[in-house]
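QA checklist item 7 of 12: single-chain prediction sanity check.
[x] sequence parsed
[x] length recorded as 287
[x] structure emitted
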Amino acid sequence: MKTRNKALKALGLGIVSAIGIGTLLTALVVASPKTAQMQGLRLLPQSLPRRKSKLAEKYSYRAYLIAKRWFDILVSATAILFLAPLMLAIMVAVKLDSEGPAVYSQERIGSRIRGKGGKRSWEAKAFTIYKFRTMKKGNSSSQHKAFVQALIKGDTATLEAINGKVSSEDKYKIKNDSRVTRIGKILRKTSLDELPQLFNVLKGDMSLVGPRPALAYEVDVYAPHHLRRLEAKPGFTGWWQVKARSSVDFETMVQLDTWYAENANLWLDLKILVMTPLSVIKGKGAA
């Protein structure tokens, strides 16, 4: 009887997971934009001068990329399976809280990374990122665009005009954003809005660990040294996320991302993955 009950529970969990995955996949297909909008994106160089990483000195960088990709597939697929019921519940909560789709899609700029003979090269790549919707339907991105570009340029006057007087830790993000829904605030604080990006990892657009995926209007105002952060595939989590999140200025974020790109290895990736839950619990720099 106990064996039968366990089997029924396992079957029930499997059915709920299958429904959750199927529903989320359907939402992702519906949310996908029809065409990529690359207007205004500058042509990016394939490679940039960089300090040779310790990994490249000892091992083939290509071997690291292959191992990293297989690790991404294994972990993201397993996580999607186990988190499907939670993701389904979040989708229902988002739909009940406000009008609009449960899953939000947006074009981001990532990188196609290659490695051969210990050397690396990269090229810019636009892709569609998936998130649980945290904002009201039909909101404008103009304010966020102005804020992000002012942040990159170090335009304090514009930042204060948009954000008002806030604490030093909060001045690098839009505080009290009226566009964010009630459920959206919770999802952002806990980073649960990022869970659909596990599908981006599974597809290969992102990795489990890497720099935050950039916005097209963000890349448009990058200085040459900012492009260094594109030397690594964008990640579900990363060195900047676990060390600072939105509590540091843009230049510091670039330094953290560049350091990761130069020192990337599987042990560092594992360390960042272990540090991520603690960073989420602390909530430092959360939007």
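[x] summary fact logged: Residues 2-139+179-282 form one domain.
[ ] second reviewer sign-off
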